[in-house]
Amino acid sequence: xxxxxxxxxxxxxxxxxxxxxxxxxxxxxxxxxxxxxxxxxxxxxxxxxxxxxxxxxxxxxxxxxxxxxxxxxxxxxxxxxxxxxxxxxxxxxxxxxxxxxxxxxxxxxxxxxxxxxxxxxxxxxxxxxxxxxxxxxxxxxxxxxxxxxxxxxxxxxxxxxxxxxx
Length: 166
Known about the structure:
This protein is an alpha/beta fold. Helix content is 59%, strand content 12%. It has a single domain, classed as 3-Layer(aba) Sandwich (Rossmann fold), CATH 3.40.50.1010.
C-alpha cells in the first residue's frame, strides 16, 4: 500500500518532533510532505497527537541558542498543530515504552516514549524522519511513515502527472 493511501485511510497521526520542526522552519527538503500532512490536520482529515516529549525536544535548540523568539514560534506552531496533547505520561506509557525497548534493542528512550504514546492513543500513523524506526517490530496497528519516503512518493507522483500531461 502506498504511503498516500495509508495517510488517506488514517484517522490519527502522532507527530514525532522532526516533522514539527521541519514545518516550523520551512525545511525545503521536506516542505511538500509536511505541507501535505499539516494541511490534512488543518482540514480535519487527520487528528494530530503530540506530547510533552515533543515539547521537551522542541525546546532544546531555542534554549541552547537563547532564542526566545524561536521558542515562542515553536510554542505557537505546537499549539496550532496539536488536536490532542498528551501532557501526562502514565505508568502504562512507560511500561509500553519499556516493552518496545526490550524487543527493539536499538530503540532510544525518547523514541520509545513517543511510540508508546502513539500506541496508547490508538494512532494509525507515526510520522517521523528517523528511518531506523521503520524496522521496528511489535507496534501493533501503528504504521511508521518516514518523511523522506513520503517526499519521494510525492515527487514520483508529481513526475508521473507531469509526464502524462506533457
